[in-house]
Amino acid sequence: MATPLKSSTLQRPESAIDTDRTGLKPRLLDQVRDVIRCKHYSIRTENTYTEWVRRYILFHNKRHPKDLNEKHISAFLTHLAVNRKVTSSTQNQALCALVFLYRQVLKMDLGNFENVIRAKKPSKLPVVFTCEEVRQILLQLNGVHWLMGQLLYGAGLRVMECVRLRVKDVDFGYHQIVVRDGKGHKDRVTMLPKIIVDELKRHLQRVKKIHETDLADGFGAVYLPYALERKYRNANRSWPWQYVFQASRRSIDPRTGIERRHHISETVPQRAIRSAIRKSGITKAGSCHSLRHSFATHLLESGYDIRTVQELLGHKDVSTTMIYTHVLNRGGKGVQSPGDTLFNKESMASV
């Protein structure tokens, strides 16, 4: 993603960014935020979309988007690709933000954006670790990092699903985890690795003591999605709704201004996994998500059917899960290299 604009570059007089021409409606960016929140998008999406709208307006000299059209969108996207040299995914992200602005906020129909050149996302195979490589990575982790690494690989969680996990969604009786409001606003059930049960219980005991201390200090309320905080008035202070992986200190909620103890930042497991890969001496360019890729691939290697793996991963379409079958072919399309047929081990020993 392109480098965020510095605050000094955003100081401007009243313009399209601040208010409409009558001065009676909320600022445009506030309108964007309101619509995003009505659709229950995440705060990450809110920040990303408003930033792209801001960049778009500044690129066109602070002209109001109502005065711009499809050609201006195309010019902005071309600028990103040619001058800023952003990736195709970043360019498409900017396009999604502008489509949202025009269709959902301004209620303007610009057609099907036929003249806008959509960057084609390159077809890339996922980075998959072998079982031994996963073992070496996890051996480099300890404490909370080890628990999170085991959940990323042993349960196939996405990194945000892991950090947002709540106490009530860990079922020790059935050895399962309920992923709430995952990607695409879908719930699903996946397994709880038995190897982490004892350590996870000890971890939760430590977290509960922190929660009790917060309650004694007049805090202890956690963020609840949608209107649950009004519907269940004491739920936000109850133990089941607390995050499994809490932040080390309380912080201010950017939307409400309330001081809470939020979940741990996603950068914590990301840095830990990158460090573990480096210490393991593995040359693959892996990440947290590579553990999820490895989870799916190893299940398929073990003989589990692809529909089961699809449900565990939470994929909407089985074609998304099919990408993991490439490893099962053992090489390019399962074809044996002609170099392997020229010599056997005995003949190579004499070379």
From TrEMBL:
UniProt KW Transmembrane keyword: no
Family: Belongs to the 'phage' integrase family.
Keywords: DNA integration, DNA recombination, DNA-binding
Cited Pfam families: Phage_int_SAM_4, Phage_integrase
Record-given protein name: Integron integrase
Lineage start: Bacteria, Pseudomonadati, Thermodesulfobacteriota, Desulfobacteria, Desulfobacterales
Domain of life where this protein originates: Bacteria
Any one GO molecular-function label of the UniProt entry: DNA binding
Gene3D superfamilies: 1.10.150.130, Intergrase catalytic core (1.10.443.10)
Signal peptide: none
GO biological process: DNA integration; DNA recombination
Domain annotation Tyr recombinase: ranges: 124-337
